[in-house]
């Protein structure tokens, strides 16, 4: 068995010696459990001793960890095993959150406490669906929760999408954040103008990273290779383009304000795009109202006016870089260079809006325009994929069909996070969603829908399967060695950490 933190042959969970002062004490995840529940809205109750419920969570991002956290907190006897395909945990907190947003990554501290719980174990380097099937997990556990997120992106579906110079924002974010599958992306940053298709927070993250002064990025955990590439970047203008209008943008005020205040970059918003919007937002919800007011103020403000000191405004007016929002434009085609190989621009259909608010639809007017650019980044959303043929999947919506996290037609199988509801919202949205799924598991345990009268082997059974297939899991204490190495490398460079981007190097580091 790889590392520590495994389970004994009789279903007893053993604590990781390293995490508990080397005492090697056995855990409370024994063959019996008092089945003590205290979930919100439920009365505390006790039953006679029964086998401890064994729950398996697939995916170690926020959805997986919040699901595990809620189960462990509200069931005094449950054991939770978390499986992850990469050697390293934390999913999009590590690989999606922008490097200049370290405060958002603080949730890792809570996730670490969950992983160190004596009733929780982490098994990285295990690809569910390939190394072990969902059916095999269902044999080994009383309940299986799929929390594996969205590992693909939506495609534009237009001519020229595959030209050189066109990338998904998802791959670009993965590249600068050290996601192993994107480490060799090598985006071409030799052009002056970049076009980002999409008006969400990811689009603003990408624009901010492209235009940020290097001295700010050097203090973050951005990867060494992407920092070197950005140091040579010629990009000085970024347009963010959306099909609909200012009232339909999906980004939030915090991200917009960061972009407006970015040193050395000037916002370019067309006042005509905001005509008459003051009246339209009078009765809008407060977040939408404040966001729109900030865009209007930015569009109308002249250097040196009102809120900014004259000196700072003059510096911004002379800023070497600029960015702007373009509305009511829908991409029709990425235009190729003369040799047919690279992107040189995008042809846009101008649109008009039918309806209002979030439900407004963009309808092409028949007019088109071309925007010149050498770099196109598509930020139109992430997409979940089917993990295993045995799991129902709605390919149209990119989710697992479910009711409150219970997978339709498959008792004992659950889902949480993006694969449950679609790739929307922030970490807090995923937290609430995961608590909701965990609550469904607890309820099903409470009323007997999940039969725990027969004990399940949990990782004991899975370990044999993995060994027979030549797979060596990575434990949480193994991850802590990788973590320590990254932090040490970062310290030498004046960064919080220097991420290791090659999984083989990670495995060598822990002696796999």
Secondary-structure blueprint:
Layout: E1 54-58, H1 62-74, E2 79-83, H2 91-95, H3 107-115, E3 120-123, H4 134-140, E4 143-146, E5 152-153, E6 166-168, H5 169-176, E7 193-197, H6 201-211, H7 214-217, H8 224-231, E8 237-241, H9 253-260, E9 265-268, H10 277-280, H11 286-300, H12 310-317, E10 321-326, E11 329-336, E12 343-354, E13 361-372, E14 375-378, E15 382-383, E16 402-403, E17 406-407, E18 413-415, H13 418-421, H14 427-447, H15 459-468, H16 476-492, H17 503-509
Helix pairs in contact: 1-3, 1-14, 5-6, 6-9, 9-11
Compose a concise summary of this entry.
31% of the residues lie in helices and 17% in strands. The chain is an alpha/beta fold and 512 residues long.
3D structure, described in words:
The protein has helices at 62-74, 91-95, 107-115, 134-140, 169-176, 201-211, 214-217, 224-231, 253-260, 277-280, 286-300, 310-317, 418-421, 427-447, 459-468, 476-492, 503-509, and strands at 54-58, 79-83, 120-123, 143-146, 152-153, 166-168, 193-197, 237-241, 265-268, 321-326, 329-336, 343-354, 361-372, 375-378, 382-383, 402-403, 406-407, 413-415. By secondary structure, it is α/β, with parallel strands linked by helices. Strand 11 and strand 12 (343-354) form a beta hairpin. The longest helix has 21 residues, at 427-447. Mean pLDDT is 89; it is low at 1-28 and 30-36. Helix 5 (169-176) crosses helix 6 and helix 6 (201-211) runs parallel beside helix 9 (253-260). It is globular, with a radius of gyration of 25 Å. The strands form five sheets. It has a six-stranded parallel β-sheet with strand order 6-14-7-8-10-9. Strands 3-2-1-4-18 form a five-stranded parallel β-sheet, with helices on both faces. The protein contains 17 helices and 18 strands.
